[in-house]
Each structure stands twice: as structure tokens, then as C-alpha cells.
Amino acid sequence: MAHFAKLDESNNVLEVHVVHNNELLDANGVEQEQKGIDFLVAWSGGHPHWKQTSYNGNFRKNYCGPGWTYDPVRDAFIPPKPADDAVLDEVTCQWIVPRLKEDLINGDSIGA
User: Fold this and answer.
1) What ranges do the domains of the chain cover?
2) Cβ neighbours of residue 100 under 8 Å, at least 6 residues apart?
3) What is the pLDDT of residues 48-103, one digit of tens each?
4) 6: nearest Cα among 41, 38, 36, 49
């Protein structure tokens, strides 16, 4: 099964939908993301903004969910920022929270 994020005009993830792999196959039997997008545009009554997301994180960095953002420059899904001082890890496109990281390094309990 393939997973696709329904995006708004600002690339915010609204929903994630599952599409059968058969809907992605081209004439040569090769999966094509655009075939899945075409299927979803028709299925949704014309909603034009869709991006495939990988359940295993094999592409676009992360499997997304509602509230996430698609970054077209990084070609990655990025989760909501968890804290004002969080810094985006450019490799994983996950947020690093400095205080939490410091607590874990020092062996402190979280929330102490």
C-alpha cells in the first residue's frame, strides 16, 4: 500500500490516505507517484495537492501525519515544532530540543 499526504496550499498536511499499489502502476508495471496523485485528484473531487509519504521513511525523510509540513526545498516532511528553542536537524528533518537533549546527556529525568 502507498501512503499520500493531502496538503493545503501552504504545504500543511491535512490528512494521510492509503492507496492500493495497483493505482500507481504505469503501462510497464512500474509504480509512479504521479499515477497515485492522479487517482487521488479524481477520487477527492479535484483536490490538487498530494505528496507520497513513506511509511518506512525510505524517502522524504519522515512518514507524516496531520499537522506536519511538506518542505519542497528539502523534499521532506517535517513535524510540528515542539518548542520555541527547537532546532531542525537538516539530515533527519526532526526537531532537536536543546533542554531535552541536555537532560538526556546528563542522565536527568525528563521533566525534572
Assistant:
1) 2-72, 81-112
2) 110
3) 999 999 998 899 999 999 999 999 999 999 999 999 999 999 999 999 998 755 56
4) 49
Identify the CA nearest to 98 among candidates 109, 110, 86: 86
pLDDT tier at 104 (50, 70, 90 boundaries)? Answer: low
Q: Residue 108: what pLDDT?
A: 57
Tell the burial category of 35 from Cβ atoms under 10 Å away from its Cβ (0-12, 13-18, 19+). middle
SS3 85: coil
Helices (H), 1-112: 33-43, 98-106
| Residues 10 and 4 sit within 8 Å (Cβ to Cβ) | no
pTM (2 decimals)? 0.84
Q: Which residues contact 64 (CB under 8 A, 6 or more apart)?
A: 5, 13, 16, 53, 70, 77, 79
